[in-house]
Every structure is written in C-alpha cells, then in structure tokens.
Amino acid sequence: MNNLRRLAGACEVNGCDTIYASDRGTLVLQGKSVVAEVELGDGEQAVELPVDLVREALAALEGC
Q1: Element (H or E) spanning 55, and its range?
Q2: What is the tens place of the pLDDT at every residue in 28-61?
Q3: Rounded to 10 degrees, what is the CA torsion of 9, 13, 16, 22?
C-alpha cells in the first residue's frame, strides 16, 4: 500500500480522526483505539470514529 487519499478528516497532521482510501481499494481508518466486545484477529484493532466523519467519507467516495 503506497498511496492514501484523505476522504474525511478535519486536520492535516497526525492525531486526528481521519478516513483514507488506499490504492488497493480499501479504507484506512485513523481513530482512537478501543477495547471491543468482539473477537479480533491477529493484527486487527478496533477504532472509534465519529458518525459524521464516516458520512463525509462515504459522500467523498460517491463522488469518485
């Protein structure tokens, strides 16, 4: 994965909730790590994002 395109997020620096589209057709989510009540696989992590941020990212994807 080499290229990430920012779809949603308020700031341009580290430490902000952000959603990116990868060059592999996937989404990369940057958010606050949470302890989840679900079983996670090796290398997986649950993150928490604001609903409005997810809506903004979906709208950006629809425009592609």
Answers
A1: helix 51-62
A2: 999 988 987 889 999 999 999 999 999 999 999 9
A3: 60
